[in-house]
């Protein structure tokens, strides 16, 4: 069955958390493969630049999240999809043009084929532009993935933002983290819930614009702490659903 036919059958929507990304967002939206993708939701909380305007001009729906934070933005995007007709599969992409949205079908196809519930786009397995994945991000991911392997028994190589998950599987996870722990929370809860989680290699390039997280010392420290806290927090619940 061709991608177009698969797309016609399955509803695939994209959530893009964006904070002050007017310089990069149009590039991201232009590379989202339509009609494979049905809708794009840009979750903006507190941008002071033209992010919302650029999003609308690029054909995206814009939702605002009351609370600052990566997770909070993702939650606002999901709430909008839940209210207005959820998809079969939801894909998360960053707004800084570091991910390659055109690679999205390689993340979704294993889910549509019933081989996976969650697919992480691994920047570690994929081709990276020099300086795209900062050493502190790489080191943090390595430690977190090691702990997940040690305590959850599942091998991940990355906590990358570019990922796809089946909607009903995501709903079972009860996602809640409002900021930096979001990606780790999804992966440890998915393993705990017994979801089929896998990875595909994705390309990664240097972002357009200014990093809000790993490109800053405070962002790196806060993200590092929150990710490790999130991995540690759910260790006791392995095998038990929804503590
Ligand atoms: N809406 C929203 N998006 C955010 C927030 N913080 C980061 N983002 C977005 O999340 C993505 C990842 O942030 P980024 O600055 O690239 O972090 P890095 O990749 O770790 O350097 C980007 O698309 C940001 O615009 C936030 O507080 N609110
Ligand atoms: Mg980034």
What does this structure look like?
With 243 residues, the protein is α/β, with parallel strands linked by helices. The chain has a single domain, classed as Spore Coat Polysaccharide Biosynthesis Protein SpsA, Chain A (Alpha-Beta Complex), CATH 3.90.550.10. 42% of the residues lie in helices and 14% in strands. It has nine helices and seven strands; from the N terminus they run H-E-H-E-H-E-H-E-H-E-H-E-H-H-E-H. A seven-stranded mixed beta sheet has the order 3-2-1-4-6-5-7, with helices on both faces. Guanosine-5'-diphosphate (GDP) binds next to strand 1, strand 2 and helix 4. Guanosine-5'-diphosphate (GDP) is lined by residues 17-19, 21, 43-45, 68-70, 73, 94-96, 137, 207, 211-215.
Could you give the topology of this structure?
Layout: H1 3-9, E1 12-18, H2 22-31, E2 39-44, H3 51-57, E3 61-64, H4 70-84, E4 89-92, H5 104-112, E5 118-122, H6 135-152, E6 163-166, H7 167-173, H8 182-192, E7 197-201, H9 217-233
Parallel strand pairs: 1-2, 1-4, 2-3, 5-7
Antiparallel strand pairs: 4-6, 5-6
Helix pairs in contact: 2-3, 6-9, 8-9
The chain binds guanosine-5'-diphosphate (GDP) and magnesium ion (MG).
The site of magnesium ion has 5 residues, from loops.
Write a concise keyword list for the protein shown above.
seven-stranded mixed β-sheet; binds magnesium ion; 42% helix; 14% strand; alpha/beta; binds guanosine-5'-diphosphate; 9 helices; Spore Coat Polysaccharide Biosynthesis Protein SpsA, Chain A; 243 residues
């Amino acid at each position: 069955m061709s991608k177009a036919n698969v797309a016609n059958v399955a509803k695939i929507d994209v959530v893009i958390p964006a904070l002050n990304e007017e310089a990069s967002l149009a590039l991201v939206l232009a590379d989202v493969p339509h009609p494979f993708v049905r809708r794009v939701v840009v979750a903006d909380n507190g941008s002071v630049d033209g992010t919302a305007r650029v999003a609308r001009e690029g054909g995206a729906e814009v939702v605002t999240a009351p609370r600052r934070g990566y997770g909070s933005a993702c939650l606002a995007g999901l709430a909008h999809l839940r209210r207005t007709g959820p998809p079969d599969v939801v894909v998360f992409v960053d707004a800084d043009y570091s991910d390659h949205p055109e690679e999205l079908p390689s993340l979704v196809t294993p889910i549509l084929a019933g081989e996976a519930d969650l697919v992480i786009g691994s920047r570690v397995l994929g081709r990276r532009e020099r300086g795209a994945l900062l050493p502190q991000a790489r080191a943090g991911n390595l430690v977190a993935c090691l702990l997940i392997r040690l305590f959850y028994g599942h091998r991940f190589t990355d906590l990358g933002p570019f990922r796809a998950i089946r909607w009903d599987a995501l709903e079972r996870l009860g996602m809640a983290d409002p900021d930096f722990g979001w990606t780790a929370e999804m992966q440890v809860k998915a393993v705990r819930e017994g979801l089929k989680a896998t990875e595909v290699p994705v390309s990664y390039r240097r972002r357009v614009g200014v990093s809000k997280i790993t490109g800053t010392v405070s962002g790196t420290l806060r993200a590092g702490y929150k990710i490790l806290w999130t991995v540690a927090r759910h260790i006791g619940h392995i095998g038990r659903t929804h503590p």
